[in-house]
Amino acid sequence: DQQVKQNSPSLSVQEGRISILNCDYTNSMFDYFLWYKKYPAEGPTFLISISSIKDKNEDGRFTVFLNKSAKHLSLHIVPSQPGDSAVYFCAARLDSNYQLIWGAGTKLIIKP
Amino acid sequence: DTGVSQDPRHKITKRGQNVTFRCDPISEHNRLYWYRQTLGQGPEFLTYFQNEAQLEKSRLLSDRFSAERPKGSFSTLEIQRTEQGDSAMYLCASSLVGTQTQYFGPGTRLLVL
Q1: Which of B45, B104, B109 sits opposite A99 (nearest CB)?
Q2: d(CA A2, CA B26)
Q3: Average pLDDT, chain A
Q4: How close is the nearest chain B Cα to the Cα of A18, in Å?
Q5: Residue B110 has pLDDT above 80, yes or no
Q6: Distance CA B110, CA B37 (A)
Q7: What is the pLDDT of residue B56?
């Protein structure tokens, strides 16, 4: 039972354009959603998070949108840069025990 | 202290051997988590500590796995009688009570032959 799904295994975007990464979830007990970026042979690096009571959070080039009725969130990166090429994971936190439930990741490729 | 550190970064072992991994969290963080990640998947939660107390264990954590955080600082994860299915990246993360962000170490990649 996958509680957090990232349905696009990969995404290719032109440098300077907007990258939109999507994530769907099923459990209404998640209280925070987080996006992490991962390079090969490294641990995940925290990017941005959003509380379940918000619908938008912005930090520089990164914006996360949450649609609770659709149980859907998205990460927007604008403008996309070559250094953004990595695997992006969506994670959701259970309010009962703080563990993170992760999607399978989306590999983002920024083309020059 | 600039982040979470893990040791070793890589471990190759033969089936049936025991292995132990170490995690040093960010110094003021009182929560510490262990996750396992296999290729093409997101990390899966294994267990977490608040200070020295182990508060939650996943059903993924079989009896062959044990984790400790004896003084509420560093933690060890031991796998006894390793199996080929244990081959994965083992990730450690830490956080402060009252915050939602977990900060991850570089991971220990285990290969069981």
Answers
A1: B45
A2: 30
A3: 94
A4: 24
A5: yes
A6: 10
A7: 86
